[in-house]
Amino acid sequence: MSKIVIMESLGISAEELAARKAPFEAQGHVFVDYPKTTDSAQLVEEAKDADAMILANMPMPADVLRKCDKLKFIDVAFTGVDHVGLDAAKEKNIAVSNASGYSNEAVSELVIGTTLSLARNLRSVEDRCREGKDKTGLVGWEIKGKTVGIIGFGKIGTRTGELFHAFGANVLAQSRTHHDGVAGYIEQVTQDELLRRSDIVVLHCPLNDSTRGMINAEKLAMMKPTALLVNVARGPVVAGKDLAVALENGVIAGAAIDVFDKEPPLDTASPILHAPNCLVTPHVAFATQQSMSLRAEIVFDNLAKWMEGHQINVIL
Question: Which ranges carry the D-isomer specific 2-hydroxyacid dehydrogenase NAD-binding domain (predicted)?
């Protein structure tokens, strides 16, 4: 019998959660659910006698994991795992799996939505309409014929490329490695070429030592002054202060930012919240009804396979 702690809400109904737990409970396994917290002492108290842990994107520090002597498996209900103390997990031989693939559609669709919002000045024209005014000076532009550059061309990046292609855009892509077998409409280029040629730059890359602060003042200066930046990857991939300055000075025309250096809620004095033509959303790209259900399906499948000795979606 295993004790499994669910460290935060998985974003599904109580009925769905109960149904997904039921097969495990029938085998004698026990689940304990906790509300999200960032208090390390509380996290240790909740997880210290657990065999397995399920969490989404809440931080799970290495110092907490080092005090969880029974823990054997961390089941991450998220694609990225940079918020988990992987060094400690490796030291303690704790297996780690993620839920890669659950939000491919959700993230890609939000990229399209935020791009359209910026292209058509939706926030401003709505305000104008509510104020009894017209569109003067706020005529937008179309995606068709524009060049979209996607940095990080995994499954989500590939899907984003498909959607932009459907709109009639030209699609550039850049990843750490060259991808074979990509669609014929994809042109794989270097990052600098992508930045210089693109009208819309979309970030889908993971956060690691090579990507932290990757989009900085120097890289932003390579972009067209009419270009947009869309970040649905990880906040620290972009140097936030550099982006705010670039927007203030017209280095680029606009940005859509869903991820930040910290999880929202943000400090309302944060410079990016006051930068011009910057659409901000509180880390919602992954969150739809469909994606939350698919995520739960993957997470509980991960748990079942680990219990059977056949770990899948392996991180460690």
Answer: 113-285
